[in-house]
Amino acid sequence: RAARKMAEAAGGGPAVPVLFCFSVFARPSSVPHGAGYELLIQKFLSLYGDHIDMHRKFVVQIFAEEWSQYIDLPKGFVVSERCKVRLVPLQIQMTTLGNLTPSSTVFFCCDMQERFRPAIKYFGDIISVGQRLLQGARLLGIPVIVTEQYPKGLGSTVQEIDLTGAKLVLPKTKFSMVLPEVEAALAEIPGVRSVVLFGVETHVCIQQTALELIGRGLEVHIVADATSSRSMMDRMFALERLARTGIIVTTSEAILLQLVADKEHPKFKEIQNLIKASAPESGLLSKV
After folding, report:
1. Is 162 a catalytic residue?
2. pLDDT per residue as tens digits for the range 203-215
3. Which is nearest to 200 in space by CA: 133, 114, 281, 132?
4. For residues 226 and 125, what is the distance between their CA atoms, to the nearest angstrom?
5. Residues 109, 121, 172, 225: which is the catalytic one?
6. Active-site residue, selected from the candidate residues 43, 110, 111, 225
7. In order of start, what are the domains of the chain with their CATH numbers?
8. Side-chain-side CA neighbours of residue 229 (13 Å)
9. pTM here?
10. Which residues have C-beta within 8 Å of that of residue 192, sequence separation ≥ 6?
11. Selected catalytic residue, list 21, 109, 110, 205
């Protein structure tokens, strides 16, 4: 009743009850008679602002009784009677899913630090693969963003990994790599569409980073032979969960060869030699 009175005061007309749905939520409210798209969006933000990622694109849909399902809000729609609307985030277009190109790709190297060496399974192998990926990034001119989890206590990135030319090397305490400085760095790179993500731990920092990135509309490729955890069970279930959300779980060789795409690529021979020179047979991929 209070919401209805506020809507009448704001719009100068009678209020109409509306059920606003977003994700798993459904909250009744009201808007002035004649309210259109913009006012509906404002109401969604007032109800669900803490849950809506403003970096994404959305579509508003209304429940159509004649079809018994939601349909896209018709052009010029205004609220005239009791109705049910929902806000739907748009997903990555399937036609572009997985198409890596150097000009639209960034590499994320997550927390490959010295103190993790004795605890992380196959750590030596993922260091080797991570170094190969960073060499490939330098050859192909791909920006690299590196984070270190609380380096004061956990040490810096291991010496075997050469961070020469990295766009950003940043300490953090947050588990996700998606920090304000990282978002600012991404904004400086024109046309970024894909992130190649690797490091530790799969079920913590890698998982949280990947989920935040897809929430911002970026495509994420997790390099299975360059990411690990203390527990192989944690790693396995994290990769399975992430794959179900549309994140691409792949391998370092697949990434590098997809980025060159053609044996006539001017860097193909160097990438090929890089793959031949450092491909550990660890058994890690059998545990994906």
Report:
1. no
2. 999 999 999 998 8
3. 114
4. 7
5. 172
6. 111
7. 15-89 (3.10.20.90), 102-275 (3.40.50.850)
8. 18
9. 0.68
10. 104, 105, 106, 186, 218
11. 205
